[in-house]
Amino acid sequence: MKQEKLRGRAPVVIACVIIILGAIGMMRRCKEDSGASIAMQYVKPGGDTLAVAIEMSPLTYSLHNDTAEGFDYQILRDITAEHGIVAKFYPVANLEDAFRGLYSHTYDLLVGSLPSTNTLKHHFPVTDAVYLDKQVLVQRRDSIGGRGPVTTQNQLLRDTVWVAEGSPYQTRLRNMSRELGESIYVVSPDKYSSEHLAILTALGEVKQAVVNEAIARRIAADYPILDIDTQISFNQFQCWAVAPGDSTLLDSLNVWLNSFKGTPAYHRLAEKYL
């Protein structure tokens, strides 16, 4: 488990991952870059399947009666099937491991609750927006330690917040700490997803966590003791991240996503999950 004190000049988790990986010289597979989009014809070189790391959460990917479902999962499943691409999904709970695998080209694509921030885009190619969401604070409605629920961002100063390890949400907390001029302490437990942290908060084992609002709403439906009303960010575009250098895949996904978002199928999924 990691605990980090966030200050204005604190490093961003993703940047640390990139630096470490570069230092140890992780091998990257060579890919040809044609410099042009072949969105309607994309097939991975050698006929390989598309290796997709997908975040396990009630929004992105989960199993219900042995059936895979989830907003992002069903979108990618439909668009790859439509264009004759075979996608193999690798469920992940730890985003830090997933980013590492994406950087080393173990995965071609990372699908999850990823806000399209400048920090993320600096290190990985990201798709156009898949949907809009924002980050919220998940906490219990009852008074833990006699303080009552947090209702403003200022109340998080000198306090502790739990965030999934490797999550881009740390970027927002870092910026908030800098804006407000005080430290915010972040705990990043190994192998826990945002969903796990929200449930642990409901059970009283975690004080408070930052997760996407869409995930928070689905968890709060099962745990009404949770308060999810305190916003940590404004609405943000949520995207998918592509392995560095794979411009062909990025171009293809953007064309397919933008086309799919205009279909009744997308709007049915959005109504169900968002």
Please tally the helical runs, counting DSSP H or I stretches of 4 or more residues: 9
Major sheet characteristics = 5 strands, mixed
Proportion of residues in β-strands: 15-25%
Distance between the termini: 31 Å
Indicate the structural class.
Answer: alpha/beta
What order do the helices and strands follow? EHEEEHEHEHEEEHEHEHEEHH
Shape designation: globular
Q: Output mean pLDDT.
A: 80
Radius of gyration from CA coordinates: 19 Å
Strand order in the largest sheet: 5-2-6-13-7
Task: Give the low-pLDDT segments.
Answer: 5-46
Helix content: 25-40%
Number of strands: 13
Question: Can you give me a brief rundown of this structure?
Answer:
The chain has 9 helices and 13 strands. It is α/β, with parallel strands linked by helices and 274 residues long. A hairpin with a 2-residue loop joins strand 3 and strand 4.
Question: How would you explain this protein's 3D organization?
Answer:
- The protein contains nine helices and 13 strands.
- With 274 residues, it is of the alpha/beta class.
- The strands form four sheets. Strands 5-2-6-13-7 form a five-stranded mixed sheet, with helices on both faces. A three-stranded mixed sheet has the order 1-10-9. It has a three-stranded antiparallel sheet with strand order 11-8-12, with helices on one face.
- β3 (62-64) and β4 form a beta hairpin.
- Mean pLDDT is 80; it is low at 5-46.
